[in-house]
Design brief:
alpha/beta; Rossmann fold; 2 domains; 5-stranded parallel beta sheet; 4-stranded antiparallel beta sheet; 33% helix
């Protein structure tokens, strides 16, 4: 089946794309929404400008649409983007990286229903620790590009998601009960390399911008 991937550049959408490809589907295009609202309910915003470069490393056509990021209204922009993908690439379904967000999954499903296409959520309800372990074992090179909750701070920006990171995260999870995979918006990630990429995304510098426990990484490519 020809599928479009809702791609944020982060770990979940990239892994969902990989699983869809392994299941025998064709990744016909990557679709990204660039929201002007940094606190969007629907869309990942840190380092979203790098998704075009990542799509190129995957050898997959890329479509981008901007949105003002107003709650619910931003879904209209997403629907228009998917309509464009149907017209250009004849996609028959959408792949999402949704794990636990009912808000996101239900709204994407509704759009797909309206457009008469399938919606695939290969990570849905996957244990979050299992998900992180699989990403590491699969050779995903992932860094943190946004943190938005206590006790995280600017020192987390640029951190690699590896065994050491997971060990620290388990301690924080035990104390505070945060979502291990950032499903509560605690942190956002950027895939630097994975089995879909032809080569590593070359990063020259990451600058942490923010205050308190809310920080974003401004990424400069090499």
């Amino acid at each position: 089946m020809k599928l479009g991937v809702l791609f944020s550049g982060g770990k979940d959408s990239a892994y969902a794309a990989l699983l869809a490809k392994r299941a025998g589907h064709s990744l016909s295009c990557f679709l990204s929404i660039q929201s002007k609202n940094e606190n969007s309910f629907m869309f990942h915003t840190p380092a979203i400008e790098l998704t075009k470069k990542q799509a190129g490393l995957c050898g997959v056509p890329f479509l981008l649409r901007e949105t003002e990021g107003r709650k619910e209204l931003e879904l209209m922009d997403l629907e228009e983007l998917i309509k464009d993908a149907i017209k250009r690439y004849k996609i028959e379904g959408i792949v999402t990286g949704a794990v636990e967000s009912v808000y996101q999954a239900s709204r994407i499903q509704e759009i797909c229903n309206n457009l008469g296409i399938e919606c695939f959520n290969p990570l849905w309800q996957m244990d979050q620790w299992e998900l992180l372990d699989k990403l590491i074992k699969e050779g995903f090179d992932i860094i943190i590009v946004g943190v938005f909750a206590y006790p995280f701070d600017d020192k987390m920006i640029g951190r690699k998601i590896d065994k050491s990171f997971l060990d620290e995260l388990r301690v924080v999870h035990k104390k505070l009960g945060i979502n291990p995979a950032g499903e509560g918006g605690e942190f956002e990630s950027l895939v630097v390399n994975c089995p879909l990429f032809s080569k590593e995304l070359s990063i020259k510098e990451i600058k942490a911008v923010g205050e308190g426990h809310s920080w974003r990484g401004e990424v400069l490519l090499g």
